[in-house]
Amino acid sequence: MLRPSFRPSSSASFQRTDLKQLRRLFAFVKPYRWQLFAGIVAVAVASGLGLIFPQFVGQFFDGFVSGSSATALNRVVILLLIVFLVQAIFNFLRTYLLALVGEGVVADMRTALYRHLIFLPVRFFESRKTGEITSRLTSDVSVVQGAVSQALAQLINQSVLLLGSIVLLFITNLRLTLLMLAVVPVVVLAAAFFGRRLRKISTDFQDRVADANASAEEALVGIRVVKSFTAEALEANRYGVLVRQSYRIALKRAVLRALFIAGIFLAMFSAISVVLWYGGQLVLTASLSAGDLVKFLLYTFFVAGAVGALTGLYSQFQEALGASKRIFDLLDEQSDLPEAKTAEKLKHPKGQLSFDKVSFRYGDRGKEHVLENVSLDVAAGQVIALVGPSGAGKSTLVTLIPRFYDPSAGRILLDGIDIRELKLKDLRANIGIVPQETQLFSGTIAENIRYGRPGSNDDELQVAAQAANAHEFITAFPDGYQTIVGERGVKLSGGQRQRVAVARALLKNPRILILDEATSSLDSESEALVQAALETLMQGRTTFVIAHRLSTVRSADRILVLDDGRIVEQGDHESLMAQAGLYRDLYERQFRAKDQTVVL
Predict the structure, then answer these.
(1) Which of 76, 240, 263, 471 lies 20 to 30 A from 553 at CA?
(2) What class is the 352-430+520-525+540-600 domain?
(3) In what order do the strands lie in the sheet with 566-571?
(4) In the chain, what percentage of residues exceed pLDDT 70?
(5) Three-class SS of residue 412?
């Protein structure tokens, strides 16, 4: 007989998830535990001193009723002022210390998240929008920041006030306290009911904000395309739609939060009204002094205020849990390019590469292979040109060399060692890439060239720039090598950006070089300068050249012709032209089109 399997309730599942997230969140607190402890002590002392206030007020009222002397009343007020002064000191300490902890925790979390993201493989970033990722780094972390740096202090403060007030209420009058506390179960049930819904709505809100950020970032990055198509209104409307979606969800959240807080305050102040009525009856029958009634009412207001604050904190806590879940989801992302535990350190590579029956497919683009059963041996220092129609697999083949992806089948060897057995950092340190669209960063020209080798000196920098035919145009700028290139190098021309990229690769001094359409988007003059720089860069290095302009690959040691993910032809230019195959067809078609353009 089969036993029914136990399935935990959704409530239990929620609690386990909450506890797990809280443990992970508070793991970031560990470096600041002593500051946190001191801050908690300061909160407890400040809150405890706040509980003394009603005691003095009760004495003050009883003194008036009993006709105490002015001296006794003055003494009460002076003691009260001293208490307030000491409380102010501890309030300063608790605010400063807990802010220090909160800001430190959030800074560490943001740093840890970015460090984790930057090491994730290319495949991860191809499936996520940049704006969504930056939203996690900014918006979601800010939500957690509010909970850690502000809500934590309030949580401790209001908890001490709540528990201390309840204890003093019991001491003051048992029957009134029980009457007042009858409303607590209603508050707890309301908090549980509204809390879950609030978290779900808050999570939806953050997701919509992330979508809006992603849309805005895409448009701003491609601002030239937007303006060239006069699509400003289209992008503004698209962003407006996403913002309005988030606004509607924010309104739902506001309504839910308002109902929650209004209901809690209604319940608490209704209880206070009943307490006031019943306490008045006790005073009239001399069962309770006027001072004790005032003291009881003040403690009741403390309880009401603490419950109201705690319910607000509960909603903030639920929002922070939703935001932290998305942060931890990113932190849990694992690389699909695992590094072997016994990875070999790459020392003085020669640059000999072998593709052994390599096949590859992009998992999110169907089951069709982009490369299929590719075998290839490349001697150290050889120049290999890759040609073929669009979609033949040329760029995919070269992206497997630095392990941006791993083959679906087969293996790639560098100097006889499977690249999966090498340390990723060592492998990529020996590979230089000059792509068609050069990515420069928004610093100086010197900083962009040094990206290839950060520790290089000025002389090495200039030697690389001279070899890349970049020194002349760089020194023509008023600020020379300290010229700011702008975001993505927008202040430089295409040819200038490309020569800076070549200088960057030269300074890195890689053993293997990948040139992916490095001159295809340049004018004739810039192409000649960049081509000369590339020829300097290629000397003595194993080089893979992808080019649609077949005239640029004629001098390669070997030309590989790819079609439909397979190598269908290989050889030098003359032998391939003699075969009258795909290469010759591509070559003649290209030059025929060029001749027709000239005639036109």
Answers:
(1) 471
(2) alpha beta
(3) 431-434, 512-516, 542-546, 383-387, 558-563, 566-571
(4) 79
(5) strand
